Amino acid sequence: MYDWIVIGAGITGACLAYELSQQGLKVLLLEKDETPNNATIYSYGGLAYWSGTDNLTRTLGGEGIELHRNLAQELDGDTEFRDLDLVLTIDRQNDPETIVHYYDRFAITPELLSVNDACILEPLLNPNAISGALKLPHGHIHPQKTTNAYLRAFERNNGVIICDRVIDFLRQGDDVVGVKTQTDVYHADNTVVCGGGLSRSLLQQANIEIANYYTHAQLILTPPLDFELGTIVMPAVQQRFILEAKAKELTTEDWNPPYDMATRAILDPGAVQFMDGRICMGQISAIAPNPQAKLNPFTAEAEIRQQVSNILPLLEDIPGTCHSCLVAFNNQAIALVGNLADTKGIYLFSGFTSTLVFAPVLARRFARWISGKEDRVIEELQSVINH
User: Fold this and answer.
1) Residue 262 binned pLDDT confidence (cut-offs 50, 70, 90)
2) Fewer beta carbons within 10 Å, N or C terminal of the chain?
């Protein structure tokens, strides 16, 4: 018998399991894959702590970057945290002065760079493809190493990790009292779903409908390379947020079987290099309500290479493999955190707008909140989740 079962060992599940164990709770973490294959693995690793637009997101952004600056020491594990400039490229046909004003609403406003200055900062840029760029301070981590550091610290706190797929929830009347997996059953006072893009379909098994959606992300990962990309490069106008906004037009039925809606896809060309020399570049984001939808990796790779190489020509022919994963989002709040559908014993921790910045902070706040500490942020998110 556990105090908490956490479903999913990506960055969200790992940090939440750790923080719960920090409160002296008996915690079981269930992960379906022995080898991780999720949004954490394929994340750029960027920490956009500058992007807060109101008191809440600015507060959490500040807390988030401070947490990451000290996290490796706390967890006694390498997260590869570093400060790394973010270069937001402005398309040649766009006016830089118009684009920069869009960023006036953020906690930290960017520096507008000329084409020449942008290429001095990031020599791999193609000067003929841009009309300028925006420079912002940015944090960067290795997402899977950070997750692994959380998991090892969790185990040192006597947390239990089992690789098994959850297939159903255990009920006692209307309450959720644990889970059934492919091989066993586990009982707990509380169960929290941290399944990212799979959270929606998993909770449907408990007859709980949530506004937790997902895009199918496709990107290219390379082996270690012997040249250096000195910044994170992304477009100043990102189509992914526009695509997610369009999801508000979809109905609940669109997201449920038989999944009749056609796929909508966009591509935001960008790239980042990790400390071991590997490069992650992409990305295509597609809305296809079927979580098992198969998108063509060959077409995706060709499109990514074509658009990224327009900005960063040296990346056109580098070796690499196209991967895909689900990326959760929601259209209600910065995250879906709290008890679900007034059903005792079942919680959600998913749908973050800025996962690597917000999830660790909200995991800490949530764990302290359920242990009795007042937290207006968690209470606010709890009030939204079932609205």
Assistant:
1) low
2) C
